[in-house]
Amino acid sequence: MDVIYWLIPSMIFVGVVLVILLMISVKNGQFDDLEGEGQRILFDEERTNLELKKNTKNKVDNSSF
């Protein structure tokens, strides 16, 4: 019975600490975009205009052979 007197307040304390940590992490933006990183890895990055111009120039130069 003495264990319960110590166990209940200690678990309430641990619960309060976890809720405070959760609130801090939400406030700092930890959970802003949960799906963005998972989706970003699946798709290629958009190529810049400079890269596209280089590739089309190389294709034209190679097709003259």
UniProtKB/TrEMBL annotation:
Source taxon at top rank: Bacteria
Keyword Lipoprotein: no
InterPro entries tied to this protein: Cyt_oxidase_maturation_cbb3 (IPR004714)
Keyword Iron: no
Keywords annotated in UniProt: Membrane, Transmembrane, Transmembrane helix
TM region positions: 6-24
Name assigned to this protein: Cbb3-type cytochrome oxidase assembly protein CcoS
Species in which this protein is naturally found: Candidatus Ruthia endofausta
